[in-house]
Amino acid sequence: MSLLHTAAPAAMSVPKRATLFGLSAVAGGLAGLAWSIDLTNWAYYGFLQGFLDPSAPIASLAVGVALAYLVGFIHVTTVCYFPAAVAALPLVQAARDKRDWLKLALVLTGGMVVVTALFGAIVGGVGGAFAGLGATSRPMALVMKPVLIAMGLLMVIVALGEFGLVRRLLPELHPSLSLRDARSNPVTGSPYRRAAALGVLNAATFGVICTRPTYLTLLAYIAVVGSVGYGVVALAAYGVGLASPIALGGFGLLPAGRSARFLAWLEARREAIHVVQGTLLAFLGVLTVAFFWVRYAIPSA
After folding, report:
1. pTM of the predicted structure, to 2 decimals
2. What is the CA radius of gyration of the chain?
3. How do the domains of the chain map onto residue ranges?
4. Three-state SS string across 76-90, please?
5. Are 117 and 235 within 8 A, CB to CB?
């Protein structure tokens, strides 16, 4: 019961939150069952072939690294990662000036890069172990189907947390507490430790777990290259991309107390934001599970 109390929106009762979660899940399930199989195959395999076609510019490994950075940069626009990115912005209050924020941003980036680079090594190593499968429909689908079902289920679990029905997995946003801490404590080791921990947590959750097609195709590309070293470099660049919007957003919030006003605005709407995030995650998670579990068939050849 204590978990419910700490994570739940105060203005909405448990039955109402459970009902909203159920309605979102049902809507997502219906959307998943009605989703076009042909459109999914065309988008996924067409985009994948764009990565792997030797005549395409992306066949250059350097271009692949650059695109990995861009995939990380735009990842902030997803409902998966945006809450985690916003949770790092209260660190701006611990910075006395732009130089302090730059140090905090570098620590945050370092935490993210460690996680994403390790994940890149795993993806590249696994791909190398299965070298020769290539990017044909059947072997890719054998990997794609269970992974996307698992990601969808994880999104549903996170949605339950956003509704306050289980412990939250995404970093909690408490701007008002951060403001008080920033005023009472100088910039010491503590903000840096928090920045490093947030970087690791953000990257280890939806930094590396998402159903965004561009991200999944990047992972497929790294797996097909089958190199641990390239996997480390490419997903390290992706980690830098994840951190870049947070760093730039912090610089934009530093002048004239903008961060204080913005974080106070977020604090006033914190519980409503949780409900919106939970609704979207429940819908998208169940949509993914319903489509890939029920409708998506692994090609015979």
Report:
1. 0.71
2. 20
3. 61-295
4. HHCCCCHHHHHHHHH
5. yes
